[in-house]
């Protein structure tokens, strides 16, 4: 179940990131790897997230960037990069429940954008507030969905 959309202004965010084409079932492995990396470095500063770059989502092969906020810059290590996510205006909705029902949250947020006259200007971001790493019961999972917008 998703709530109603809202507008948030986000500041720049320094993150550790891994961007690759992957089947969606590998996403949790990449998240876990990146979370371990920032914990080992002692620089973790927030919830993991994923940015979905493809115009049409394909669960078999998707261009996904996994990110974890960090406190300090660090030198790139292999496929792990340090970068800044830009500040901006975002439409946000909170999805509560399993990931197989998250499409409803996207649909509600896109409808909200259209109703309120916002133009989406970039790829969506999911922030995993509560997920399988901290809660086994899918109905208790919480994911924030963000779209950068103008308007």
TrEMBL record:
Residues 5-150 form the AraC effector-binding domain. InterPro entries: AraC_E-bd (IPR010499), GyrI-like (IPR029442), Reg_factor_effector_dom_sf (IPR011256), SmbC-like (IPR050908). PANTHER family: TRANSCRIPTIONAL REGULATOR YGIV-RELATED. This is Transcriptional activator ligand binding domain protein.
């Amino acid at each position: 179940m998703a709530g109603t959309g809202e507008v948030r202004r986000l500041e720049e965010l320094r993150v550790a990131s891994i961007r690759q084409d992957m089947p969606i079932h590998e996403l949790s492995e990449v998240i876990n790897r990146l979370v371990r990396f920032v914990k080992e470095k002692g620089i973790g500063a927030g919830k993991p997230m994923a940015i979905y770059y493809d115009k049409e989502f394909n669960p078999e092969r998707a261009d996904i960037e996994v990110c974890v906020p960090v406190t300090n810059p660090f030198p790139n290590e292999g496929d792990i990069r340090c970068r800044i996510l830009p500040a901006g205006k975002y439409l946000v909705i909170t999805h509560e429940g399993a990931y197989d029902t998250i499409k409803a949250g996207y649909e509600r947020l896109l409808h909200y954008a259209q109703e309120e006259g916002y133009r989406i200007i970039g790829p969506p971001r999911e922030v995993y507030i509560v997920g399988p790493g901290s809660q086994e019961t899918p109905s208790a999972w919480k994911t924030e969905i963000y779209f950068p917008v103008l308007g």
